[in-house]
Automatic annotation (TrEMBL):
A GO CC term attached to the entry: Golgi membrane
Signal peptide annotation: none
The organism's taxonomic lineage, starting at the top: Eukaryota, Metazoa, Ecdysozoa, Arthropoda, Hexapoda
Keyword Transmembrane included in the entry's annotation: yes
Organism expressing this protein natively: Anopheles farauti
Any one Gene Ontology BP term: protein O-linked glycosylation
Family: Belongs to the glycosyltransferase 31 family.
GO molecular function: hexosyltransferase activity
Protein name as annotated: Hexosyltransferase
Amino acid sequence: MRKFQRFLISVVAFAVLYGVYRYSFRTDTEGNYLFLLPKDGEWSKPFEPRAVSEGSEERPVDSSRLANLTGFEYLIPNDICKENNSFSELLGVILITSYVGHDDIRSAHRQAISQQKLISMGLLRIFSLGVIPPTERFITQAAIESEQKLNGDLIQGNFQEAYRNLTYKHLMSLQWATQHCRGAKYLLKMDDDIVFDPFYIQNYLSDLHQNDERQPHLLAGYVFHSKKVIRLRANKWYVSREEYQADVYPPYLSGWLYITNQRTARALVAEAQTAGFFWIDDTFITGLLAQRLRIPLTELNRWYSSNSEFLDCCIRDMKRYAYQCDYYVGPNGGNGKLIMEFVQELERCYDNACYQRPAGKSLTATCVAEYKQKLNAADHGTAMISQMRLK
């Protein structure tokens, strides 16, 4: 009887220990244990910044992980930047994070300026994609693979496209560039719905390269200061107290477009593998991780326009008066043609030496855009167009 009791006690104790083991550790979507990873709520607790000095040894990066995502791999890999070929000494790589279904936007970027033209400028472009979500009805994996076969400028990770997976796509872009394009001096991360001036940015990167030794770490772009955390549950950018405790984010860069270098990108990717995960990618990578590493941000806010209409007016004025544009980065406003028209007109402008915009002729003073007010869907009417001065 006593032997049976001891046996029963042993069985119960084993079951309890197994339960603690089985359910105390988080797993990813495939059931893999995340033993060594911090919980997602780490950003609700204070942390000590860890400075990265110029002479410090770089931390290793696990290529099979993106932050807290284990088992990462490329569904579409890309070796376009192999160091033993002619791309080994690039000035910069343009990393465009693109929704997998935005094949038309990617086509607009290619038509705006070809890969061959970019390479002649010392630049190279790559698009970063995730897995097609089950709700997507207008694109197939076969079509994505055909796009890669035709253009050779895609990478695709094995995580699904979703707002809360943007951090994975962002990190995948940086990790790919630091592991597969080490010869590139600078990395330019941007979103696919952004219009930008590749000629001005090439000149900026060339000037940076002349003073490279003075700035071992680089994060440059539009700096957001004192941005409040959104606590409204109905907002798609809602963040709970468990995810992030403070009411204000640290300074961070807009993901529209920012510039970094290899050393900084490697530090950010490595830090993401030990820091707590945060799903808003720009805030996490260029804000929380940069603050943790004490990497300063360089403000280039004057480059950016928040209105696509200003870029429309820039195109108009380049055509009419050969005026230079006041802005180098801005949204496309849902218009893929704007990406093509802006870059193509810029190329003509640079070739023909456009003039600086005269005093009193600023875009804010002269740009009048079309304001389109849609009628109710039931009316099936056409757009009503009236003139509107931008401020």
